[in-house]
Design brief:
- By secondary structure, the chain is of the alpha/beta class.
- It folds into 2 domains: about 240 residues, Type I PLP-dependent aspartate aminotransferase-like (Major domain) (Aspartate Aminotransferase, domain 2); about 100 residues, Alpha-Beta Complex (Aspartate Aminotransferase, domain 1).
- The protein contains 12 helices and 14 strands.
- The strands form 4 sheets. The protein has a 7-stranded mixed beta sheet, sandwiched between helices.
- Helix 2 packs across helix 9 and helix 10 runs parallel beside helix 12.
- The two termini are about 25 Å apart.
- Bound molecules: pyridoxal-5'-phosphate.
- Pyridoxal-5'-phosphate binds next to helix 3.
C-alpha cells in the first residue's frame, strides 16, 4: 500500500492532478507551453482575486525556498534594509539568505514556541528608520503557528515599511490580506503544498509597484526578469513543464472545489478531527487551536515513544508523519492535513494510533 503523506508537502495527489502529468510533451518555446504558463499565472492571481493591473506573478522552477530566495534577493532595493522576523526554522532561513546576499538587515529572533512580539517589532522599526522592508513567515511550519498577519500588516502600514511574506505553507488555505493600499508587496509560495500540485514549480506574487525598485543581486532567480519575460509569453530558462501541467490542473480543481475558503474549511475539519482524536489518547497539540494554522499541527510525542518508533509504526499502517525540526525533534511530531485526504483517512490514522498506544 502506498502510504498517505501527512508531511507538509509534497502532498498526496488527487487522481485528477496525477493524470494531468501524462499530457503531451511540450517544447517550452511553443505557444502550447505559453498558454499553460498564462493559465497558471492568471489562476494564481485568481486564488485571492487579485487585480492583474496591480499584481503580477513570477513562476519559477525550484522548490518553495527558491521563490522565497528570489523574493528576498530581488525585492529589497540596493539601498534598502530588511527586518527579518524569526520564530522558527523558516524565519532563520530568510536571515541566512539576507546574510548571504549581503543585504543590510536586522533580525528579531523570537522564541520558537512564542508568537511574534508586535511591541518588540514596533520598537525595532522605531529605533531604525533605515528599515524599508519586513520579512515574515505567515504559517511557521516548524510549530504549526499561524503568525498574526493582520497585526503585522497594521504595524508595517503605520511605520511606512513594506512587507515580504513567506506564504509557502499557507497560500491557498489561509486568509492573506492583499488590500490595495496595504503594505504587502510580495508573497512567495509553491505548487506542492496547499495548492496540491507536484514539486518543481514555485512562484512569487508581486505588487507591480515593487518591481520598479527591484534589485538585481541574483541571476537565475531574478524576479524582475522572470515577470518581464513571462508577461511577454516568454521564459528565460527551461521550466518544469510537467509540474506546470499539474499546477494548472490543481488550480482548476481548487476553483471547482470552492477556492481557498473551501480548502481552509476542509483542512480545519481534518485537523480538528485529528486533534480531538489524539487528545483522547493523551496526545496534546503543542499550540492552542486559535494560534494554529489549519494546515499542520505539532503534537507532543507520547511518553516512552520515540519519533522513530512512532514514524515506523504509522508508516507500516499507511501514513507518513513528520518529525520536529532542530531542537524540537526529540519532543514533537507533526501531522499535516494538506493533500487529497478525507475524513475516512483520518479515522484510519486515529485507529492506527489506538492500536499502537493501547497495546
Ligand atoms: C516548505 C516551506 C518552505 C520551503 O521549503 P522547500 O523544501 O524549499 O519547498 C519555506 N517556508 C515554509 C514556511 C515552508 O513550510
Amino acid at each position: 500500500m502506498t502510504p498517505l503523506l501527512l508531511n507538509p508537502g509534497p502532498v498526496t495527489l488527487s487522481e485528477r492532478v496525477r493524470r494531468s502529468l501524462l499530457q503531451p510533451d511540450l517544447c517550452h518555446r511553443e505557444s502550447e507551453f505559453f498558454a499553460l504558463q498564462d493559465e497558471a499565472r492568471a489562476r494564481l492571481l485568481d486564488v485571492y482575486q487579485l487585480d492583474p493591473a496591480e499584481w503580477s506573478v513570477a513562476l519559477l522552477t525550484g522548490s518553495g525556498t527558491a521563490a522565497v530566495e528570489s523574493m528576498i534577493a530581488s525585492l529589497v532595493p540596493e539601498n534598502g534594509k530588511l527586518l527579518v522576523l524569526e520564530n522558527g526554522v523558516y524565519g532563520e532561513r530568510i536571515s541566512q539568505m539576507a546574510s548571504q546576499y549581503r543585504i543590510a538587515h536586522e533580525v528579531l529572533r523570537g522564541d520558537w514556541m512564542a508568537p511574534l512580539d508586535l511591541e518588540q517589532i514596533a520598537a525595532a522599526l522605531k529605533a531604525d528608520e533605515g528599515i524599508t522592508h519586513v520579512a515574515a513567515i505567515h504559517h511557521e511550519t516548524t510549530t504549526g503557528r499561524l503568525n498574526d498577519l493582520p497585526g503585522l500588516s497594521a504595524l508595517c502600514q503605520a511605520h511606512g515599511v513594506r512587507l515580504l511574506l513567506d506564504g509557502v505553507s499557507s497560500f491557498g488555505a489561509e486568509a492573506i490580506g492583499f488590500s490595495l493600499d496595504g503594505p504587502l508587496d510580495a508573497v512567495a509560495a509553491t505548487a506542492n503544498k496547499c495548492l496540491h500540485g507536484v514539486p518543481g514549480v514555485a512562484f512569487t506574487l508581486v505588487r507591480r509597484r515593487a518591481l520598479a525598485e527591484a534589485a538585481s543581486r541574483v541571476f537565475y532567480l531574478d524576479l524582475g526578469r522572470l515577470v518581464r519575460l513571462q508577461e511577454q509569453r516568454n521564459t528565460p530558462f527551461t521550466p518544469a513543464v510537467h509540474a506546470c501541467y499539474a499546477l494548472v490542473e490543481a488550480l482548476r480543481e481548487l476553483a471547482d472545489e470552492g477556492g481557498w475558503q473551501a480548502r481552509h474549511a476542509r483542512y480545519a475539519a481534518l485537523a480538528e478531527q485529528v486533534r480531538v482524536g489524539l487528545a483522547q489518547y493523551g496526545i496534546d497539540s503543542v499550540l492552542p487551536v486559535a494560534a494554529s494554522s489549519v494546515v499542520l499541527r505539532a503534537y507532543r510525542l507520547p511518553p516512552g515513544v520515540t519519533y522513530a518508533q512512532l514514524h515506523d509504526a504509522l508508516k507500516a499502517s499507511g501514513f507518513v508523519i513528520y518529525a520536529g525540526q532542530g531542537g524540537l525533534s526529540a519532543e514533537l511530531f507533526r501531522v499535516s492535513t494538506m493533500g487529497a485526504l478525507q475524513a475516512a483517512d483520518m479515522a484510519r490514522l486515529l485507529a492506527a494510533f489506538a492500536s499502537l498506544l493501547l497495546h
